[in-house]
Amino acid sequence: MLNLNIARTLLFLGCVVCSNGRSLQANNKNLLSTRSLFDEKNKEHWKIQAQWTLRTKLETPLNKKVAKNVILFLGDGMSIPTLAATRVYIGRKFGHTGEELKLSFESFPYTGLAKTYCVDHNVADSACSGTAYLSGIKGNSGTLGLSGAVKRGDCKGQKDDANTVTGLMDWAQKAGKSTGIVTTTRVTHASPAAAYAHSADRKWEADADLPRQGLRCEDIASQLVGGRVGSSIDVIFGGGRKNFYSRNDKDSSGNFGYRNDGRNLIREWLLNKQSHGVAPTYIENKRELLNLDKRKHKTVLGLFASDHMPYNLEAGISDPSLSEMTQKAIEILSQNQNGYMLFVEGGRIDTAHHETKARKALDETAELAKAVEAALRMVDPENTLIVVTSDHSHTMSYSGYSKRGSDILGLANAKYNASDNLPYSTLSYANGPGYKPPTDFRRHNLMLDNMNSLNYTFPSMVPIPRETHGGEDVAVFAKGPWAHLFTGNYEQSFIPHAIAYAACIGPGLTKCNL
Ligand SMILES: *[C@@H]1O[C@H](CO)[C@@H](O)[C@H](O)[C@H]1NC(C)=O
Ligand SMILES: *[C@@H]1O[C@H](CO)[C@@H](O)[C@H](O)[C@H]1NC(C)=O
Ligand SMILES: [Zn+2]
């Protein structure tokens, strides 16, 4: 029993630290002093761990309270192999093997699997899947906030109100909650845009992106500033400044805007908020973000980059991290007595995978895990539902058979050279720019490559410029009120219905109207 208690404490610490390097190192001493219990060769290790997991499950009561607050975290392109590989990436950074670690959200009590296909395509893109997990209906690939009746590029269909769908942001606003969006991509990119926009093409981020001929539709940036749902969002943090001002103007960093219509949407956003009697704040860098006083700034637009925000591994001193943006958003939004709905996207996992830059993809996944951890420290788990999921998978696979704790970004055990007597990497892609042409009819020898480079493109079987998404299910992790609704296997479009039930918002069944 004594042993069990020690193990409990340590395992508990082991869970909380997950992605937090400092506490992981601080605990090293504890871990060493009880080495025997952590020795995987000791059968007691596994028994105690399993008994502890069992006991935790038996002791976890169902939380059937109303979710006052909801935070939906989205790892764009965060497939299940990405999660497993990221554990090893983090573990090795801090001198552990890594396979046994848990990402912050992997210790959530309830998990499920979501099916991601779109109405017209077998493999989802971020637009149709965003519409599914934010609005609760599935649409066609490349379309945002519109039903499957609208084909990609059908501006006429976009203009017909019968095809428009709204979801979590709208329902939360109608219930008097504050709403926020945080992303590392352009705030007009597909995932965040699915929260507020209706667009027959996800590419119509600014007016300059619209076709020159035929019907004109409202671009996504314009909908964020002027749309019913977009204009009511209280906190917007991310990149994509160029879509908000004219191609004839420069921002403070000397970047030209991208708009043809001469509008300055940042100014329009400020004026619009002022006309509604709120004092809005516009910010552009990390210092301004960290200095925000939540008591004075209740409505904030932060556009921290001209395009997407940089990868964490390439970020400069003026670029805020996903955790910093998430923390500030929670600080500001949690002042509303009616609660809040916050959408947080780790958007660059996906872009890294498309480039087959696995190192960056795993690092961005670690950043999302840190942001979830930062949120967990700030909220009351009794009244805050946290859901962590992904929009779609990718084609990266995690191959055997290396020794435990091997470099996840390196070669598989040399004992297992392929049939052509050349080594292969643990991580590889079914397609993408990492394709390496053969030399003298022999497969490329990976030992000639610098796989430690940030920009190394991992081997891909088929050469295409952008690696594709994958079609298998994505994981859903949930904690807080009604988190148990997220168990099982379901359509991705079920997610907002379950959130709405827990939070007593939206037109469907809720805990309050049942
Ligand atoms: C695997 O392939 C590399 C590159 O050709 C070679 O140097 C190495 O000796 C091979 N390993 C085995 C066990 O054959
Ligand atoms: C990686 O690529 C980016 C551009 O995609 C470049 O800015 C950066 O300098 C490269 N880093 C290294 C270490 O090569
Ligand atoms: Zn993508």
From TrEMBL:
The record's Pfam families line, in alphabetical order, gives:
Alk_phosphatase (PF00245)
The signal peptide, as residue positions, is 1-21
Family membership, please give it.
Belongs to the alkaline phosphatase family.
Please list the residues that make up the active site. 126 (phosphoserine intermediate)
| Cofactor binding comment, as recorded | Binds 2 Zn(2+) ions.
Q: Which GO terms describe its cellular component?
A: plasma membrane; side of membrane
Q: Which domain of life is it from?
A: Eukaryota
Return the EC number. 3.1.3.1
Kindly give the Gene3D superfamilies that the UniProt entry links to this protein. Answer: Alkaline Phosphatase, subunit A
Q: What is the lineage of its organism?
A: Eukaryota, Metazoa, Ecdysozoa, Arthropoda, Hexapoda
Write out the catalysed reaction: a phosphate monoester + H2O = an alcohol + phosphate
Topology in the lipid bilayer is annotated as:
Lipid-anchor; GPI-anchor
- This protein's species is Pararge aegeria aegeria
Molecular function as annotated in GO: alkaline phosphatase activity; metal ion binding
Task: State the UniProt keywords alphabetically.
Answer: Cell membrane, Glycoprotein, GPI-anchor, Hydrolase, Lipoprotein, Magnesium, Membrane, Metal-binding, Signal, Zinc
Which residues are involved in binding Mg(2+)?
Answer: 76, 189, 191, 345
Q: What is this protein called?
A: Alkaline phosphatase
